[in-house]
Amino acid sequence: MPSMAANNLPRKNDTCNNNHTQSIEAAKGDFVTRRQRIQQQRKSLPIASVEKLLVEEVRNNNTLIVVGETGSGKTTQLPQYLFYGGFCRDGGVIGITQPRRVAAVSVAKRVAEECGVALGQKVGYAIRFDDMTSASTRMKYMTDGLLLREALLDPCLSKYSVIIVDEAHERTVHTDVLLGLLKSVQKTRSSVSKVMNGHAQNGLLMGAEKDKSFLMPCHGKKLSPLKLIIMSASLDARVFSEYFGSARAVHVQGRQYPVDILYTHQPESDYLDAALITIFQIHLEESHGDILVFLTGQEEIESVERLVHERLRQLPEGNQKLLTFPIFSSLPSEKQMKVFMPAPPGFRKVILATNIAETSVTIPGIRYVIDSGVVKARIYDADAGIESLDIVKTSKAQALQRSGRAGREGPGKCYRLYPESEFDKFEDSTTPEIKRCDLSNVILQLKALGIDDIAGFDFIDKPNRTAIIRSLESLFLLGALTEESKLTDIVGHQMARLPLEPVYSKALILSSQFNCLEEMLIVVAMLSVESIFYAPREKLEESRAALRCFSSPEGDHLTLLNVFRASNEFVVKNKLTHSKEKAEKNLRKWCKDNFINSRSLRHARDVHSQIQRNVEQMGLRITSCGDDMLVFRRCLAASFFLNAALKQPDGMYRILSSGLMVQIHPSSVLFRSKPECIIFDKLVRTNNNYIRNICRIDYLWLPELAPQCYGLQ
DNA sequence: GAGCACTGC
Fold first, then answer.
1. Which three-class secondary structure state does DSSP give residue A500?
2. Are the CB atoms for A683 and A386 separated by under 8 Å?
3. What is the spatial distance between Cα A543 and Cα A702, in angstroms, rounded to a whole number?
4. N or C, which end of chain A has less CB nearby within 10 Å?
């Protein structure tokens, strides 16, 4: 194989440096020892002892549950075992799904290195905006959401011989939908291959009669049965095993150092104060090692940070060697990166984190964990149709995950700020997301896959019936579904194809008729990402002044449009005179000066180019309304009519479709001016019912533009 | 007068 020779040579960024001072021979030597070291590490992983068993189990069973704790090596090793076990013969691909992008990328990189191949060849990854795969890719790491999207184009997932769903215990909405889909695909593919193998040549696919929708695209193709592996870190494999018809489960040992769990004797009335006391108790009495504190949000993190600094000043100078680092998702990435820097000699780090540090971010050097026992979680009230962020108790699994963060590099200690009796009352695991979110998108996807009976779909956990009905109604009002709840011919299919929330897709489709698709692409991209503006407490005034430069009296949508256009102008100018790297660096500086989160803006620019390609492929005409913002606002009203609200005498707003009383969020540019009639993007209940991203509209537009909702009866 | 965490062709 010609590629083998190339694969044995060191690659860029590997061991060969670019200035040619190192001889090829020396580089080869380094490379060999590095390869040997990797092979040794692989062999010492707990999973290595069961390689043969696992390959046999997969060969003999179509579905297998693999339970492996942290450090077992399951994610990196199992795909390689199966590859060398012959599961990619005939060109089949092993797909491995992850709930998070970073995991898909970093694991793929590691496995490519272990295999000694360039990333994107035998081993690759695919995530939104970034596809590192090729025709020769046989082990493909990806996000579970991406595989769901792939299923829209190829409902039988025909290129995959094996699909491994990793981190299934997290039970994200994507994982749950994927499990249902895979179960169905597996059934279909078994029946197709049985037929193809000559059991019944009369064309009647009896066993799969129920799954008609999946059969059609598979029909006529010779497909091998799909091997399915569900990997979970939870100790309880029963749920998955039962769901897949008593599938076999294999347990693989983890590799974790012991963590001492300490509880309080009494319940703490104030966990922030308890956290503070515990931080200093560890700092003054325990040996070296960094501290990770789990809190619920930015506000708590910032207040604990202030309190630590205050108390530190009261200590003798020798005891002041303690540094705090906050980390939460909306923190700009430069600041997030600081948690990874080792503390200066003699100093101890305290990391104050949200649950971002539970799974998404692994910080080295942690020996002590302080667990508040609470988390801010999304709750969905299906009856009222409101999402809220509530502080709730963690589950047992979550508490275990948190304490595990202390035992990654050596024995550790976890201080739970609650009594053991309290822990015993925690739920075993966190409620699956599908039971606590809006289902419009899930339903649209399933409908596009030909699954019409949503309530009858074989979910591992059935979503709330009211939530299903509510979403069906709103999809009907948006024109995606017919009265019989079938996907509508053009609009419904177009909406399912766009990787956006249904109401945003609707806005894009409508805007091409209103001649403002250019503006809507920008606004939808900006609404799709995390908060664009960054307002640190210590620079509140400056950040407000920066926002005023962009703000529009018509509302937040047009303000976002102004930000995107200003940034784009800056980018275009910069591209002419600077290298790509320099231009990107300059854009980050521009963002910082304007109190804009550069990560969010970059994300919005990625979404923008993706959905621009999408609408072009659909044949929509991209035209601009120029300065005629009235047209644009009318288009917003025609799309977001379910989110229209009227001002009340007391300054509150009443949502016309539900009657719910809400307030404009203080971050809105219309917080003070309070127009008579508005549409909003999102409603989230925190301390109040807050609506975010507001645009001024005319009340009289509603019966004209959304007669299905506001028409005269 | 205030922002859990992820994610998508």
1. coil
2. yes
3. 35
4. C
C-alpha dist (Å) from residue A89 to A95, A188, A222, A564: 14, 21, 15, 48
CA torsion angle for A260, A261, A266, A270 (degrees, to 10)? 110
Given a contact cutoff of 8 angstroms between Cβ atoms, the answer to whether A368 and A282 are in contact is yes
Using alpha carbons, select from A472, A482, A452, A476 the residue that is nearest to residue A382.
A472
Could you tell me the distance in Å between the CA of residue A239 and the C1' of nucleotide B8?
27
* pLDDT at res. A201: 39
User: E strand or H helix at A262, and its extent?
Assistant: strand A259-263
**CA to C1' distance (Å), from A533 to B8:** 23
- Topology alike, domains A46-252 and A259-431: yes
Q: Rounded to whole angstroms, what are the CA distances from A167 to A175, A251, A359? A: 9, 14, 10
Residue found under tokens 């059609």: A216
CA distance A552 to A280: 48
**Element spanning A354, H or E:** none
* Mean pLDDT calculated for residue range A567-582: 89
* Bases in strand B with any atom closer than 7 Å to a protein CB: 1-9
The DSSP string of A622-670 is ----TT-HHHHHHHHHHHSGGGEEEE-TTS-EEETTT--EEEE-TTSTT
Cα within 13 Å of Cα(A694), Cβ side: 28
Tokens, residue A325 = 């680092």
- Cα–Cα distance between A426 and A571 in angstroms, integer? 51
Q: Which of A477, A502, A480, A475 is nearest to A709 (CA)?
A: A477
Model confidence over A512-552: pLDDT tens digits? 999 999 999 999 999 999 889 887 777 878 888 888 889 99
Find the helix or strand (DSSP H, E) in which A134 lies.
none
How would you list the strands of the sheet with A348-353, edge to edge? A259-263, A412-416, A366-371, A290-294, A348-353, A322-327
At A671 the three-state DSSP class reads coil
From its phi and psi, is residue A384 left (phi > 0), alpha (psi between -120 and 50) or beta? alpha
**What's the CA–C1' distance between A544 and B5, in Å?**
27
Taking 50 as the threshold, does the pLDDT of residue A5 lie above it?
no
Whole-number distance in Å between A196 CA and B5 C1'? 45
Please check whether residue A155 is in contact with residue A218, taking contact to mean a CB–CB distance below 8 angstroms.
yes
- Helix runs in A383-462, H state only: 396-404, 420-425, 440-448
Q: Which of A636, A642, A643, A656 is nearest to A691 (CA)?
A: A643
Q: Which nucleotide is nearest to A101 (CA to C1')?
A: B7
Phi-psi region of A173 (alpha: psi -120 to 50; beta: other; left: phi over 0): alpha
Reported pTM: 0.88
Closest residue (CA) to C1' of nucleotide B5 is A356
Q: How does pLDDT run across A135-155, given as a tens digit for each residue?
A: 999 999 999 999 999 998 899
- The domain made up of A46-252 has a fold known as Rossmann fold (3.40.50)
What is the DSSP pairing of strand A386-393 with strand A348-353?
unpaired
SS3 call for A288: coil
Query: What's the Å distance between residue A99 CA and nucleotide B8 C1'?
Result: 11
Report the distance separating Cα A117 and Cα A611, nearest Å: 33
Give the up-direction half-sphere exposure of residue A698: CA atoms within 13 A in the CB hemisphere: 12
Average pLDDT over residues A663-692: 91
Integer Cα distance of A143 and A175 in angstroms? 9
Which nucleotide has its C1' atom closest to residue A536's CA? B3
Which residue's C-alpha is at the least distance from the C1' of B1?
Answer: A666
**Å between CA of A539 and C1' of B2:** 15
Domain residue spans in chain A? 2-11+22-43, 46-252, 259-431, 498-625, 640-713
SS3 A461: coil
- Does domain A259-431 match CATH 3.40.718.10? no
The Cα A595–Cα A99 span in angstroms is: 30
